[in-house]
Each structure stands twice: as structure tokens, then as C-alpha cells.
Amino acid sequence: MSDMTHSERSGGLKAWLTSDTPASRFQARAINIWFAWRDLLRNPLAVIGIVIIAALILMAVFAPLIATDPPNRQDLAARLLAPGVDGHLLGTDELGRDIWSRIVYGSRVTLQVVALVALTAPIFGLVVGTVAGTLGGWTDRVLMRITDIFLAFPRLILALAFVAALGPGIVNAIFAIALTAWPPYARVARAETLTVRRADYIAAARLQGAGTLRIITGHIMPMCLSSVIIRVTLDMAGIILTAAGLGFLGLGAQPPLAEWGAMISTGRQYLLSHWWVATMPGLAILIVSLGFNLLGDSLRDVLDPRGGQK
Amino acid sequence: MSVSQGAHDPASAEEEAAIAGTGLLPRIAGRFGKTLFSLFVTLFGLLLVTFAIARLVPLDPALAVVGPRATQAQYEAARKEMGLDQPIPVQFVNYLSDVVRGDFGRSNLTSRPVIDDVRDAFPATLELATLATLLGVLLGVPAGVVSAVNQGRWPDHVLRVVGLLGYSMPVFWLGLIALLIFYGQLGWVGGPGQLDVSYELSYELDVTAYTGSILIDSALSGAWDVFANALTHIALPVFVLGYFSLAYISRMTRSFMLEQLGQEYVTAARVKGVPEGRVIWVHALGNAMVPLITVIALSYAALLEGSVLTETVFAWPGLGLYITQALFAADLNAVLGGTVVIGVAFIVLNLLSDLLYTVVDPRAR
């Protein structure tokens, strides 16, 4: 406690975050995160990635303020206008809808897909991987065999087949992507579990009377988190591309919802005469997944020096 | 394994014999057996999933056959004929035995057996994926080597950008942009489809379908005008798919090469006075090729899958286009049949790369 008061006296939060004598578990963690964050900010590519993702989030949250038009307002008199004409920043589509506004609102769909998949697939994979790793034996063999089976599938084709069965729509597309995205997380989590499950602190927890469930959730899962988080960030670009691919095929978001993949798909018919209709949403996809790739790459360098492709 | 004190421990003696003696073949055979087993388990899982998908569908296949005006008796008869009255496990066994015999049912869209449709469409996909992989290897491996040798200098940075763009770009969008520029604006290549419309008749007349691959067939038939036209059509999809293959293969080549160039045998070769070019391209690359084989096989498998979107963009009559068209016609037999075929190709390629690895690298045995 005296430490805390001392550091607070000599510089507040900053000193508290850089103290080399953390007084609590919470402070130790905060210091770790703070140093990782500082390392990350030293890498210009990571900063570009963070800026892109921050821009995506701001765009989604403040869509009504940023968009110049409602995303679905049609104006048949102003069909297929070139970028810049009549105040349409990126031009208009075949129904006279403002492409810039549709891209801005489309960021909400993209963010929704990313957030839902990022919340479901890794958690499911984490549970499967830690349970398999902790219990071992038959549970491990069966769970890992199932994981391997899903891992051996072509992802897009499997997602296609699921959507074919469940019916097209953004929710089913998210479900199908999540269903094909969890196995790598289970693998990563199991590998991490195997390295810690025989550790003394687990044995100590068990001697204190902790049950298996408590050991998994309280003592093993936290150890797997950083590997899983890196993996999630690296996977986001792939998830965005898969979602856009499903949208392009007409199996994701349904009209008139503004979704980038579906927008490319309609723009395809006007490709040779009105290039901007298909090009602009594609650029949006490219920029956003580039952002996630840049951040994921740098995050791996900072948090996991072993796994880098250096 | 453990510190066994007994001199005559049969288990450990056997193990030692297995480690020290026995030829190469039994060990490869043992690994082959394991691989084969995992192949079967994975295939079983694939079929279980496609079967489950077929059961998930809210459509009643019997009702689809007899139509809404059928009497209850007709409906029951159709159900019985399709085996839908039997318990689910029995239905699954029936499904398995059908698939093993190559029977994926009939496609509603083409009213032909799905297996025939697949047989017609698969060569076109294979042709595309093979040429794209060739392009990826021929350009990607040298690019990766050059960037590893020049680590941190401009060739390395260029390659990093190429790779990052490849990982971040939607393949269907790149296809459309390529069409826009090279077909629409510059007119350098043919448009969507395998041939110009004006060549389709001469294809019918002059070309015998030996293999199903349009380039090979027209060359074998001596129809060089058709061959030339087909070449202008396949060029763009091959370059688009090849770019993604190149991005992946060059990145991996770079990291494998960096690993090899740091090894002592490289220093030893340099000290001995081996020319630098030989050290890089023969000594180091030779060793880097071992893990690269797996990477190349994986990228080939990924291209088979990636062809779904590319074929849609280029109206390329392969398996991907077949599956997507079937999807919109609610033709589930065709979708699942196509899924199983691509899945099987994917799984087999994965395992083949695993096996090839053992053959090429003595340390992995």
C-alpha cells in the first residue's frame, strides 16, 4: 500500500503503470498491457492498423452523422452518377442510392459480423480446447478428432453448404462462419493448456479444493487468452473476406441492406460502363481487412515473439 | 521409453528394434497406415456433416418429388421409396453406401445424376487451380528467395506489401477489377467464359473431349485456333488466383529461407568458397523445399476452394460455378455432392502433402 501512495505522489497514473514493484495482481496486469501497448505504438504499421479499425468503429457508431444520404433512399433520376457529381462523393448505384452513404452504413454490418464471430467462435474453441487439454484421455481424443475433421474442411464451401441448408441471411451467414471458424482456437487453447496443466500452481489450486470447472475457468483459460487473442485478430481479415464472399454470392445480407459484398455483386452488372459501383465497396473491404492484418501481424510480434514469421 | 532395469523387457526391446533397425519402407508404411486411418475418419466426418445439413433443411424431399397436390398415399409411397421412413442411423448408412458407389442423387437443375455433372465440371476447376499454382510456385519461390537474401531492403518491403494486399483483398473483387482493366479497357484478354462465342461452334466440331481440360483437349485435337482463344480466356482467372498463391508461397519461402540461411552449413559452404549463388539456390533452397512442399500442397487445396468465387466472376464452368448455381435453384443434391467432392480433394491433398513430407525429409521419418 505504501508503494501505491508513493507512486501516486510522484506522477499519478503513468508512474503507477510503469512501476517495477506492482502492489496488486491488477496493477501487474495493467503494467503488462501498458508495455505491450507502448511496444505496439512504436510500430508504424500497427498504428496504421489501429487507426483503420478505430475509423471503422467510429464510422459504424456515427453512421447517420457521417453519411450524406439515407442508405436506402432511391433517386431514379440520379442513377449511376460518377463520383463527385451532384455532391455524391463516390457516385450513385443503379437505383440512385449514394454509394458513400451505403458504404458508411455497411460498416455496421461488417462490424456486426466481426463482433459476433469474434465473440462466439473463439469462446467455443477455448472451451473445447481447455476441456480436452485438462481432462485428457478419451475426452481429449474425441474432441480433438472432431476438431481435426472441421479443420480439414474447406471453410468457404462448408459455410456455403450451411447457408444453403439454413437459408440466406446475415444471421445465418454469421452462424455458418462461426461454425467453421472455431477449430483453430481449440487447437491453440489445447496446446497452451498442455503446457500449464501440470504446473505447480494448478496442483496447489487442486489441493485447496478447487474443482475441475474452477480450475479450467479460473486458472487455465486466462493462460490461453493471449494466444487466442492474437489468432482472433489475424483471423478477422479472413472472416471479413468470407462474409463479403457470401454476400457477393447473394447468401449473406439480403437487399436492401447495405453490405459491401452484396454491393460489389450488384455493381458487377455495370462493371464495364460504371466502374465505381463495384470498385468502391471493394476498396472498403480491402482497407478494413488490411487494417486487421497489420494489427494482427504487429500484435503477434509484441505478444508472442516465438510465433513470428521473422 | 522409460528407464527399464530388466535386461529382457520385451516391449522396450521391440521398440529399440523399431528405432534402430528396420528399413525405410516399413516406417513409411506405418505412417501411411496412420494417414489412411485419419483419412477415413475425416471422410466419415465430412459425410456426417453433409448428411446432417441435408436433414437440417426445412424442405421435405418427398414432398418436393410428389408435389403439393399428391394424396397422402402417394406421399407415403414416395417417402418409403426414398427411404425417409427409416430411422435416421439407417438413413445415414444408406447415404454412406450411395456415396461410396458414387451416387449423389439426381440434380433438379440439370435432371442428370450429380456425379455426371461433377465429372464434367471438375476438369475446368482443376485446370484453373493447377495453372494458378504453377504460376504461384514459379514466381513465388524465386521472389521469396530474393526477399530473404535482401532482408530489410527494398525487395523485401515490396514483397511484404504484395503479401499483405493478397491477404486482404477479396478474390472476387480483384477478378472484377482485372476484367475491367484488361478486358474492358485494354482488350488484351478474352472476357468471361472459356471461349469467345464465335469459337464455340468450332470447339464442338474440331475438339474431342479427351480429358475435359479445354487447353489439353484443343491441343491434342490440333485445333490451335481454339487453343489460342482459350488461352486468352484462362489467362485472367489464372493470374488472379495465381496472385493469391504467390502471396502465400513467397511469404512462406522467405521465412523458410531465412531459417536456412542462418544455419551453420551455409557458413561452412561460404568458408569453403562455394559461390554465393550456389549456396543460396542449391544448398539453402534445397533444404527449404522440404517444408515448402506442404505449403504448395495447401495452397493448391485452397485454390480448389477459392475457385468458387473466381469461377462465378469469370463465368468459368467449373465445380464452383456449379455449386453456386445449384444453391440458387435450391438443388441440395448438387450442392452437397459438389461439397463432398471438393472436401475429398481438399482432405486428400492435405494428407498427401503430409506423406510427401516424410518421403522427402529423412528427419521426419
Please supply descriptive tags for the structure shown above:
heterodimer; A: 310 residues; mainly alpha; MetI-like fold; 14 helices; 0% strand; disordered N terminus; B: 365 residues; 2 domains; 15 helices; 77% helix; transmembrane helix (chain B); MetI-like_sf (chain B); MetI-like (chain B); BPD_transp_1_N (chain B); ABC transporter permease (chain B)
Task: Give a verbal description of the structure.
The complex is a heterodimer of chains A (310) and B (365). Chain A has 310 residues and is mainly α. Chain A has a single domain, classed as Orthogonal Bundle (MetI-like fold). Helix content of chain A is 73%, strand content 0%. In chain A, helix 6 packs antiparallel against helix 7 and helix 12 runs parallel beside helix 13. The radius of gyration of chain A is 23 Å and the shape is globular. The two termini of chain A are 42 Å apart. Mean pLDDT of chain A is 83; it is low at 1-8 and 305-310. With 365 residues, chain B is mostly helical. Chain B has two domains: 28-101, no CATH class; 118-185 and 242-364, MetI-like (MetI-like fold), CATH 1.10.3720.10. Helix content of chain B is 77%, strand content 0%. Chain B has 15 helices and no strands. Chain B has helices at 10-20, 24-56, 61-66, 72-81, 88-100, 114-149, 154-168, 171-185, 197-206, 214-220, 224-261, 264-272, 276-314, 319-328, 332-360. The two termini of chain B are 18 Å apart. Residues 1-21 of chain B have low confidence and may be disordered. At the A-B interface, helix 7, helix 8, helix 12, helix 13 and helix 14 of A face helix 2, helix 7, helix 8, helix 11 and helix 13 of B. Chain B: It is a multi-pass membrane protein. Chain B: Keywords: Cell membrane, Membrane, Transmembrane, Transmembrane helix, Transport. Chain B: Residues 122-357 form the ABC transmembrane type-1 domain. Chain B: It holds the Pfam family BPD_transp_1_N. Chain B: The chain crosses the membrane at residues 36-57, 128-149, 161-183, 230-249, 280-303, 334-360.
